[in-house]
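so ive been stuck on this for like two days lol. basically i have the seq below and the ligand is fe (ii) ion, smiles is in there too. i just want the complex predicted, nothing fancy, no docking runs or whatever. if the output looks off dont worry ill sanity check it later, just need somthing to start from for the group meeting slides
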Amino acid sequence: MLDIIRNDNGAPCSLEELIEYLNDSVDFSCQHSIRSSADMLGRLYFDRSFLTNYVLHKLKDGLSEFEPMNRYTPPSLMLGHGKDFFIRANLWRATDLYSAHYTGKSHEKTDINVYGLAHDHNFDFLTLNYFGPGYKSKMFTYEYSKVVGAVGENVELHDNGYLQLSEGQMYLYRKNFDVHIQYPPTSDSITINIMSTFIPPRSPNQYVFDIANSQVLDIVGGLGRQRHVFDMAILLQDPECDAVMRRIASKSECAKTRAYLQKKLTRASTEET
Ligand SMILES: [Fe+2]
């Protein structure tokens, strides 16, 4: 059953107050602690002018240094950050074009917010439907520890219904547990998200799933995100790159990265001799 967080606290708070609270009172290594911050995030909903003021300020500023820390391409807008988190506003377009991603007819940049793609996230985040009817999500859960991490691997996905948040409602997406497929809202909508950037000792993978076949379709995080850099460095046969990769191969906290690099570096040195 989906744990939709109702918003009963009508006292508004400012973005600055929310950031201060998150810095002082929330442990981003703990899901329970992140969920408890919904009280304050919910209060931000009742400040109905903060986002307008933020955007207006940026517009007047000439957008000169717009989004210097935004790791997410539009439609996201970075609102603030702290030690283990950042806050973003996300624009959800009402469109029926999302299926174009799979027909190759679209040149639109795809990112992890792409509609119609079943995926999890390798970090926790709390979302608030701030404006509009909001997107709809088909939800599943899975056990991360039961997945080895190979494309084509079978995964037991558990149907968890549909998620649709009314304005002001919130939901905590649990890292490597909730799988969601997002569908466009009926009219343009905005969510405010508190994203955890807490880095656990072992960087987990993020998966894209083939729901029809209950399989891993792609691996986004962990080694999957860095493999092309390693491959390029090996191809270039630079001694300094090799030395750095040997160091990563022995010290990386990611077992898959260690195994991949050891195999690649061994093969490369064998081919040289
Ligand atoms: Fe997502």
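The pocket of fe (ii) ion is lined by residues 112, 119, 121, 180 (CB under 6 Å). DSSP finds seven helices and eleven strands in the chain.
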